[in-house]
Design goal:
This protein has six helices and ten strands; from the N terminus they run E-H-H-E-H-H-H-E-E-E-E-E-E-H-E-E. The chain is an alpha+beta fold. The strands form three sheets. It has a four-stranded antiparallel β-sheet. It has a four-stranded antiparallel β-sheet with strand order 7-8-10-9. The protein has a two-stranded antiparallel sheet with strand order 5-6. The longest helix is centred in the N-terminal third of the chain and has 15 residues.
Amino acid sequence: MAQFVAFDQNVEVNKVTIMSVVNSMEKGKETRISILEKNGISIEKKEWYSQQSWLNAFKEIANTLGDMNLFLIGKAIIDSAKFPPINNLEEALRSLDIAYHMNHRLNGKVMFDSQTGTKTEGIGHYRLTDFNAAGKHAVMVCDNPYPSKFDEGIITQLVRKFKTTAATESIKLNLTKETRIKGGHSCTYNITW
């Protein structure tokens, strides 16, 4: 599935997560709030909003303000969304899928049950397919409806927050694999630190 198209029209995103759009940076804040409101998201009114409305806002942000804004919003997610307890980089990258499900609900039910550890299907996943601590590299596959630059921002901020070296991180979209940018179902990121 291409980016910006929800897998299920009944999926909702919590207000805390949506606040990352507002809080990603001070410059342009009023414009981003206006875009959210234009797409049916008034952050003062509810706790949950249509994922498709949020994706529509992302698309408008990309088209009017540029992809770098999506990257910055993704980075801001790490400071605003709910995450399980994390102790190191591998846990951070593996927990991304749990956090993703914790911050979405389907038909009024949160998509991660912390009691059973069960995830409800319907929004795709963030899958860590390779992690090599000694070699300082990992691979993350994102098969979800969010824009690629947004996912790159999320991964970048997680790596920056939990890497144990001073080395500069690199998160690169693998263009030899399918990408949502080109209508594919997923994006694969090669991560080094």
